[in-house]
Amino acid sequence: MSLTEAEAEAFLSEPKTLLGKIAWNTVSDAQFIYKAVAKVLLTQSGNASLLDLVLTYNSKARTFVFVLRYAHRENIRRLEFNKPHINPGRSREHIGKLHKHKWTDAYGDTWAYEPTDIEDPWDFRRSLGNFLTECNIEYEPAQLGTLQVQGRWI
Predict the structure, then answer these.
(1) Burial 38-60 (b: 16+ CB within 10 A, else e)
(2) Structural domain boundaries in the chain
(3) What are the C-alpha distances in Å from 150 to residues 25, 49, 110, 118, 147?
(4) What tens-digit pLDDT sequence spans the chain (154 residues)?
(5) Which of 70, 73, 103, 139 has fewest C-beta within 10 Å?
C-alpha cells in the first residue's frame, strides 16, 4: 500500500524526536559519498519503526540530500542542495539547486519547490537543523554529530 498525501502531511505535522546521535560513514565503493541513517520516534504513539532520517553528502559534487522516510521506502520530505530539478507533468517547471521534494498523490516524491526556511544552504549543520524543524523533529545540537571530509569539518 502506497503512502497518501494526507498521510504524509499527518506524519510531517506529528511531533517527533530524533533518536541517538547521527553517525556518518563513507559508502564503501565511493569514498567521497557519506551517509547516515537515524531513527525517528513518533512522540505521541511511541512508535520508532515507521520513520527514519536518511542523510547523504557527496564531497566531490558538494551536494547533500536530507530525507524523512516512511517504512524505509517512501520519502515524505526531501531537501536537496546543489542539484537542479525539473518538476514532472506538463509544466516541466525548472526548480533551483536548493529545493524540497514533497509527497503528492499525483507524483509521489518527484514534485519539488524552492524552500524559504533554509537560512544558509552552505552551512550544513544549520540546514539540517532547519530541515528537522520543518519536519517537526525535536533534537539536541549534539545529536547532529560531525562530518569530517578530507581532514576538515563540514
Answers:
(1) bebbbeeeeeeeebbbbbbbbbe
(2) 5-153
(3) 13, 34, 32, 26, 10
(4) 589 999 999 999 999 999 999 999 988 787 889 999 999 999 999 999 999 999 999 988 989 999 999 999 999 999 999 999 999 988 889 999 999 999 999 999 999 999 999 988 888 889 999 999 999 999 999 999 888 776 666 6
(5) 73
